[in-house]
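Thread title: Can someone regenerate the structure for this chain?

I was given the following input by a collaborator and told the matching structure tokens would be attached. They weren't. Posting the sequence so someone can regenerate them.
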Amino acid sequence: MTLAVVIAGDARDDRLPAERIAGQWRQAGAADVRVVADLAELAELAAAAERPLVVSGADLVAHTAVLRHLLTAPMGPTGALVLTDAPAAGQAVVREERGQVVRAGAVADAEATGVFGGALKVGVADLPALARAAAEAGHAHRPGHAQQAGQSNWPDQSNRDDGAGREPVDALFVRFAAAGGPIFAQRVRLLVAHRVTDAAGLAAAEAEVAAVDSDRAELRLSVKERDDLFTTYCVSTWSPQVAKLAARIGLGPTAVTMISVFFAVAAAGLFAVSGALTSGARLALVAGGVLLYLGFVLDCVDGQLARYTRNFSAWGGWLDTMADRAKEYLVYAGLGIGVELAGLGPGWALAIAAMTLQTVRHMTDTWYGVLHDEAARRPAPDAATGGLGGRLSQASNRVQADTGSAMYWIKRTVVFPIGERWALIAVTAALFNPLVSLVAVLAWGALAFAYTMGLRTLRARSMRVAVMSTVDARLHRDDGPLLRRLPGFGAPLPVAVLAALAAGGLLLSALTGAGATAVAVGSVLVLLLVLAAAAAGGRPHTGALDWLVPAALRAAEYLLVIAVGVAGDVPAPLIFALLFVLALRHYDLTARLEKRQAAPPLHDAGLGGDGRAILLVAALLAGITTYAVATLSVYLLSLFVVSVILTWAVSPRRAPRPQAAAADSVKGVQTPG
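Best answer:
Regenerated them for you:
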């Protein structure tokens, strides 16, 4: 339920009635619409409001769909309409980075990326800041003040802009943006939105609005503006029609997500049984590849359907994220079974390796996205524009801006995004066999990991942003209750990396047949390093590369699980099952990170990485590793299911409210280095 407020005071022309835009807000879905005379009245409304609020001036002319998109945009609770029009006198220009408004008002000509569109949506948590901004801007605002003739249309380029001399809604926006809260930028594509200054401009803008088929435009807008090569040319060319059909027959995004899960599971089943077939194996592999492709199409359709129908929900977004990873890893399992049944090699080992690699990669992808968003909100240090890291950032930005170039598509493809992964699996399985698919996934994934890690490390050093200091580091490290309350010691990143390297060495020793005593001693040493890494969680994570700590800890824990499993002769499917459940737990944490949400229910009952490591090493020393792995898998899965029920079913209203959203926090998206 959203309150819409239209500022009617100080309109430049009496023929721009406030009721015109107020009626559109009602059509767009605002539950309550008020017209106020000035910013002081708005300040009173904002101070008393207990629900999201949108505010606009009377000079905005746009499709009603543009207003509906701002109302329903899922990227964050607070956002602003941003246009590409040249700014008129009194209008505020903005600088936008990674989908966020990072500066408004006092922006140099060369840095400006757009003009404020005259409409602002504010989440409940940001209402106090809005009330203060309205009160301050109302006090400083001088009605009728405009720029002198001969001056640039761009606003003053000083370091401070108090909004004086601007239109009321612009003065409000400049003050509000200066408060420093995250504001996502709602761009207008295909549809029409303009700010007008007189009746003639109003008539021209309304004619432009009438000339555009808004439904057709909205269907096209359901496709992401920038997607990966395979998705752009092999899926999105026809998937919007599937989304439109789904809307007509009443299917919701969640239903489409579940159908895509069915297709992926069926594909995994066909890949698995192909290894046991003496005849018909090729048909099973081809059918599996086709189903995998169709499942990916539906995986895109659910998001397109949500955007087309504006049917967004926190539950649907969470389910989509978790389903994507679960589907992919079940396909790995199906391929591994197929390899084993066909006698082609250690299929389960390859599936375990692929899942471990992909999970650790996703951890770095998520944290790098958060790091980049945090850097965008801060003034860049001088070093960020120089040195190798700075030059790489500038080169990457140039490539990303040239969307029609070959380098743009190469850069998006080399990172091995989800569309390319599913396409590679489908094609290699259909043409060759499951072994080739798993080896190809591992090879391309490893190369992509090396590429992105190298470039991101250099760029992160130039950013000098300590992103983990902005979140609950203990939560996102998945530290257990045993060590969480202890004061930390040691540098977090070196200890976490050392733990991961030691776990990798232990796994290598177990795989090469080291003696039981050597493996036992090694496991104890790795455990001590894992505990030291957990203890380091209490230290400030202020290093430029500390965003890598969660991924290093995931690598340490997963490699330790595999090493203990190998040393304890645990069946490979059981090792895969435990890693699968751990991946679900950790993807849940990254989903909460992207929305700045609190810990899930019963989080501490999961024991943390340090607690689970103690149990596994103790089980190995006691000779009950298989029993321990099976029991821990069932326990963590049950805990995860109960946590999901408590979060989304029993008390959905108590689900944590998102405070900010990473701009690229989209399922399966991996930001190129």
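Confidence is low (pLDDT under 50) at residues 142-160, 652-673.
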